[in-house]
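Risk register update: the risk of archive-format incompatibility is retired. Evidence:
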Amino acid sequence: MADQEKPSIYKVFISAIAALFGVQSQSNHQRDFGQSSPWPFIIAGVVAIGCFVGGLLGVTWLVTH
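Archived output:
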C-alpha cells in the first residue's frame, strides 16, 4: 500500500462528500483507508460539513426574509 499514489485534492473532497451522504463505494473506501495520513480526509470532511451547514443557514435566511 505504500506504493499507492496520493489522491488529488479533488478526489479527497469527493470522498469526503460521498462519505458525508453515505454513498461511498467500497473501492473508494478501501483506497481512502489505505492512505498513510488521515489528515487530508479530516480537513476535507470539516470543510464539507462547514459548507453544508453554511448552505443550510443561507437557505434558511433567504426563506425567512
